[in-house]
Each structure stands twice: as structure tokens, then as C-alpha cells.
Amino acid sequence: MIKVGIVGGTGYTGVELLRLLAAHPEVELTAITSRKEDGLPVAEMYPSLRGRVNIAFSSPDKVDLTQCDVVFFATPHGVAMAQAPELLAKGVKVIDLAADFRIKDRAVFEKTYKIDHTAPELLEQAVYGLPELNREDIKKAKLIANPGCYPTTMQLGFVPLLKAGLIDAGHLIADCKSGVSGAGRKAEIGTLFSESSDNFKAYGVSGHRHTPETAAQLQRYTSDKVSLIFTPHLTPMIRGMHSTLYARLTKEVSNEELQQLFEDAYADQPFVDVMPWGSHPETRSTRGANMLRLALHRPNNGDTLIVLVVQDNLVKGASGQAVQCMNLMFGLDEGLGLQTIALMP
Ligand SMILES: NC(=O)C1=CN([C@@H]2O[C@H](COP(=O)(O)OP(=O)(O)OC[C@H]3O[C@@H](n4cnc5c(N)ncnc54)[C@H](OP(=O)(O)O)[C@@H]3O)[C@@H](O)[C@H]2O)C=CC1
Ligand SMILES: CC(=O)N[C@@H](CCC(=O)OP(=O)(O)O)C(=O)O
């Protein structure tokens, strides 16, 4: 059994990890931290886990995480970088759901997140945890930088086109919508029910922290200079993400060839579903499931291709993806514990 620790077990991605890992046949939940709920049985805070998770939260300063085989950090940015060096030195694998190790360039990280990087020596060895694009490196990794939720949709939508050299890399547009759980469980006015449940707004339009992360990753797949415009929106649903990606085609290519390109790219990827041409994927078709669905459109058969992408921000956009990485790191079937079908309706 793999002994698992979770730092930040009370938050949305932390409890999503608990939900998935409680049903994972090869995992023993060993330590789950909370600074505020030290000693509280997990199932008292989350009754859905009664009978499935029988341990209590421990304060991070009391728990010995070195007894774990792997530790997930479901914490705000800056927490994993403080603890990862010691854990890695003691042979414990680390999967960070925050951004501490996503951006290789320290200066770009510090400018984007406005914090100093305290473990820059680990940036090089960190593997970006997007299995569909980095599977072989993830299998060998000791430190995973789990991708951002929006960046997962943007990369899986744009990369097949960039790799094939079919689009203008200097003109990529991503119009994305997230459910409110994307902002985390902490108390904030903008995520109060009365502020967000009957409202729709863009935010971070002139610069969101996911733009440099995504642009740097997309740049790996083309020699042309990538330029990305990314506009996130907060939408009145709890879970779910819908990204509408726009790319300008630069070569003569038929709709059938474009569809085939995506079907071939994801033929062996169990957690990406390429829907029939012209479909309209819905967020609810991924709710609770480790699944990303996409579909292609080409209005008036012109030179703009639209890729519609949906996922559950907490599953394929965060905790499900992290479990997918854990499975690969420990030589397990990639889909172990991740077979849940989306909740409907
Ligand atoms: N929500 C989403 O859709 C996604 C989130 N992420 C990323 O995952 C991470 C977690 O997000 P989310 O679950 O939404 O956040 P939440 O705000 O819901 O939870 C954060 C958790 O971290 C703990 N925590 C906070 N500060 C510290 C600290 N200094 N030391 C130890 N534990 C701490 C909190 O617990 P306590 O206060 O009890 O200690 C809480 O359990 C973030 O980096 C986020 O950017 C990534 C993709 C998607
Ligand atoms: C709706 C909302 O606020 N979403 C968050 C992104 C989700 C997240 O937690 O960011 P990471 O994926 O980088 O960890 C935001 O825009 O900051």
C-alpha cells in the first residue's frame, strides 16, 4: 500500500483528493493536515467520508510526513516549496497542486506570484504533471508540479494543432469560465452565495497568473513565438470549467483532417474524450469525473478553428490529475481509483 499524506485536507482540492483516494485500492491515507482543525475526525467535517476515512486532521507542525511515500500539497502557493526539500531528501515523493514548481523560470515565477522562491534548486527537476503530454517523465518523477486548472484545458486544446504546425502560434485566444470552487474554500466576499450565485463576470483580463504558465508550456510544441490572450470568467456554478479556444488556421486542411488529428492525438488517452465534430460539450458531463471533453467547430468553414473544452476544475483540473500522476509515479495503472462516471443530471 502507498502511504499518502495530504497537506491542506480541509480545502476543496484536499477533500477531492480524500474522496478519490478513499476509494483507491492501493492507498493508505496516513496523514491529513489542517492548521485550524487539529484533532477533528475528517468524517466529522465531511460526513460523505463517514466509514471511508477514519483518521483525524493533524496540525502540520505535529505530523511526521516523512512516514509517507508521497505527500500531496493542496495548499496555497508558497507552502510546498518550504517543505519539499526535506521530504525529497528523505525519499518522499511530492505532488504540488499549487504553482510553486510550475514555472521553470524563477524570475517569471516571482514576478507572477509576487513571492520569493525558497527552493529554486528544485525547479529543474520538477516535472509538469500533465500525463497526456508528459507521461514518461511523470513515471520517473519525484516532484510533480500539477498544472493549473485553466492551463490544462488550454494545453490539451491547443497542443495537437501547434504540434502539427496548423495554426498561428502568435494569435491564440482562450475565453474560459470557471465554477466558484476554483477560488477555493476560504472566506472571500466575491465567492459569497449572494455575490456569486446570480452573477457572471470576467476577471484578470489584463493579466492572469495562468498566462505565463500556459504560454511557457505551449512554447515547447512550436518554434514560432507563442502569444496567448487568456480571459477567465467566474460563472455561477460550483464545479466545472468551460474553455472556448480560438486559433487561426494557417494551412489548407479539411474538417475531417482536423477531427482525425485530435482523435489520433488522444486515441490512447483514457481521460480525454474527443467528441464528434460540431458537438457542444457540457460541464455537467464531467462533474465529479476525471475527464476532459473537447469538440471542434469551424464557423462558415473559414480560417478560425474553435475548440470547446470542458472539465471539472476540481478533478481533471486538479485532484484527479494529481492522482493520475501518483499512479504513474508508483508504476500503477494510470486509471486506478479514477473510473467514476460524471454525476448526471
Ligand atoms: N480549486 C480549484 O479548482 C483548483 C485549485 N488549485 C490549487 O490547489 C491549491 C489548493 O486549492 P483549494 O483546495 O481550492 O484551496 P482552499 O482554500 O480550498 O484550501 C487550502 C487548504 O490549504 C490549507 N492551508 C492554507 N494555508 C496553509 C499553510 N500555510 N500551511 C498548511 N496548510 C495551509 C487550508 O487548511 P487549514 O487552513 O485548515 O490549514 C486548506 O485546507 C491552491 O494552490 C490552488 O491554486 C489548482 C487547480 C484547481
Ligand atoms: C475561479 C478562480 O478564482 N480560479 C482561480 C484559478 C484556480 C486555481 O486555484 O489556480 P491554480 O490552478 O493555479 O492552482 C483563479 O483564477 O485564481
TrEMBL record:
It catalyses: N-acetyl-L-glutamate 5-semialdehyde + phosphate + NADP(+) = N-acetyl-L-glutamyl 5-phosphate + NADPH + H(+). GO terms for cellular component: cytoplasm. Pathway: Amino-acid biosynthesis; L-arginine biosynthesis; N(2)-acetyl-L-ornithine from L-glutamate: step 3/4. The active site is at C149. Residues 3-141 form the Semialdehyde dehydrogenase NAD-binding domain. GO terms for molecular function: N-acetyl-gamma-glutamyl-phosphate reductase activity; NAD binding; NADP+ binding. GO terms for biological process: L-arginine biosynthetic process. It comes from the Bacteria. Its main location: cytoplasm. It is found in: Cytoplasm. Catalyzes the NADPH-dependent reduction of N-acetyl-5-glutamyl phosphate to yield N-acetyl-L-glutamate 5-semialdehyde. NCBIfam families: argC. This is N-acetyl-gamma-glutamyl-phosphate reductase.
